[in-house]
UniProtKB/TrEMBL annotation:
Domain Heat-inducible transcription repressor HrcA C-terminal: start-end pairs: 104-323
Species this chain originates from: bioreactor metagenome
Presence of the UniProt keyword Transcription regulation in the record: yes
Protein name (record): Heat-inducible transcription repressor HrcA
A Pfam family that the UniProt record links to this protein: HrcA
Length: 342
C-alpha cells in the first residue's frame, strides 16, 4: 500500500505527464505542486515508487514516466470523477441534430463525436441485426411490376430490396400479406426466426410461393449481411499527432488492428457488465494495442445491452475526461437512438 505522500507524488507525476508528454523530475513536481516537501524528499519518494513498479525511468539522465501499474493505480484509486459540462451536452445534441437522420448516421456521428472530444481513436459497435427485434415488414410501390420490400427492426435498422410481384396481384394484396407476416413475426428477435416458422408462414398464410420465396430471400439476406456486428471508427488520423506514435512501426501495428473487422469485434466484445471498463497496456490481449489504453462502455435500448462504445489511445490519455464522456454516452446513447427509430 502507498502512503499519502507517495500517492500525491504519483498523482502529480501522472497529471503532469498526461499534460506534457515529457518525463517528470522531482524539481518540476516541487515547483508546480504544493506538497509541503522539497525536491530531495520527492526524489527519494520517486525512487521508492520506481522500485515498486509505479513509475519508470527511460534514461538515467531523464525524469520518470508512469508505468502501466502506475496508470492502473491512478485510474482505480486516485482519479477524481469528472462530469460532462452543460455546454458539452448542448454541443453533443447539436452535432446529432445537424448530422444524423438515420440510425446508421447516429453510429457514424457518435464515432466522430467521441474522437473529436477525446482527441483519440473512437470505436462504436452497433447491435447485431440478429439480436434485433423484428418490428415490421412493408411493401412500397415502385412501378406496375415491382415493389420495395422493407424490413425494420426495433433499433431502427432497415434492410430493403426491390422485388417483383406476380402478375394480376394487386398492391392491396401485398399489404394484406405484409400484415399477416407482421402478426406472426412481430416481437421475435431475428435469431429466433427459424426455418420452421417460415415454413408455417408459407403453408398457412401466403398463397403465392413465388412471392414468398422473394420475401424469404430478403429475410435471409438481412440475416446474412448482419451476422457480424458493425464497427464504426473515428479519429484514426489522431494517431499522427500523438508523440507516442511517431514510431512508424507502432503506427503500422495499430493501423493493422484497426483494419481487421473481426479483430475489432472481438476487442469490443459486448458483455452485460454495466459501467466503464479501462484496459491499460498489456491488459489488452492484442500486441498491436498493448502500448495503448482502451476505455469502453456498453449501451442499452429498452434496458437490453446491445452494443459498445470505446476510446483507444496512448496510455497517456486524459482518463478522467474520456471516462466522463463515455459515461454520458453510455447513459444517453440508447435514448438518442430511439429518437431516430423508424
Amino acid at each position: 500500500m502507498l502512503d499519502e505522500r507517495k500517492k500525491k507524488i504519483l498523482q502529480a507525476l501522472i497529471t503532469d505527464y498526461i499534460s506534457t508528454a515529457e518525463p517528470i523530475g522531482s524539481r518540476t513536481i516541487a515547483r508546480k505542486y504544493d506538497l509541503g516537501v522539497g525536491p530531495a524528499t520527492i526524489r527519494n519518494e520517486m525512487a521508492d515508487l520506481e522500485m515498486l513498479g509505479y513509475i519508470e525511468q527511460l534514461h538515467t539522465s531523464s525524469g520518470r514516466i508512469p508505468s502501466a501499474k502506475g496508470y492502473r493505480f491512478y485510474v482505480d484509486s486516485l482519479l477524481a470523477p469528472e462530469q460532462v459540462t452543460d455546454n458539452e451536452k448542448v454541443l453533443i445534441n447539436n452535432w446529432y441534430e445537424a448530422k444524423a437522420r438515420r440510425v446508421e448516421e447516429v453510429f457514424q456521428e457518435t464515432a466522430k463525436i467521441l474522437s473529436r472530444m477525446t482527441r483519440n481513436i473512437s470505436m462504436v459497435l452497433a447491435p447485431q441485426f440478429s439480436q434485433c427485434i423484428f418490428k415490421y415488414l412493408q411493401f412500397l410501390p415502385l412501378d406496375e411490376h415491382r415493389v420495395i420490400l422493407v424490413i425494420v427492426t426495433d433499433t431502427g435498422f432497415i434492410e430493403n430490396k426491390v422485388i417483383s410481384f406476380p402478375e394480376g396481384m394487386l398492391f392491396e394484396d401485398l399489404q394484406q400479406i405484409a400484415g399477416r407476416i407482421n402478426s406472426r413475426l412481430a416481437g421475435l428477435s431475428f435469431d429466433k426466426i427459424k426455418a420452421s416458422i417460415l415454413r408455417e408462414i408459407k403453408e398457412n398464410i401466403l398463397q403465392d410461393p413465388r412471392l414468398f420465396d422473394s420475401t424469404l430471400q430478403v429475410l435471409r439476406e438481412a440475416l446474412t449481411v448482419s451476422k457480424s456486428d458493425r464497427v464504426y471508427l473515428g479519429g484514426t488520423t489522431q494517431l499522427l499527432s500523438q508523440p507516442e506514435f511517431r514510431d512508424v512501426d507502432k503506427v503500422k501495428g495499430l493501423l493493422n488492428i484497426l483494419e481487421q473487422d473481426k479483430l475489432l469485434r472481438d476487442i469490443m466484445h459486448v458483455t452485460e457488465k454495466d459501467g466503464i471498463l479501462v484496459r491499460i497496456g498489456e491488459e489488452n490481449k492484442y500486441i498491436g494495442i498493448q502500448e495503448c489504453s482502451m476505455v469502453q462502455a456498453t449501451y442499452a435500448i429498452e434496458g437490453q445491452v446491445v452494443g459498445a462504445i470505446a476510446v483507444l489511445g496512448p496510455t497517456r490519455m486524459e482518463y478522467g475526461k474520456v471516462m466522463a464522456i463515455l459515461e454520458f454516452m453510455h447513459s444517453h446513447l440508447g435514448e438518442i437512438l430511439k429518437k431516430y427509430k423508424v
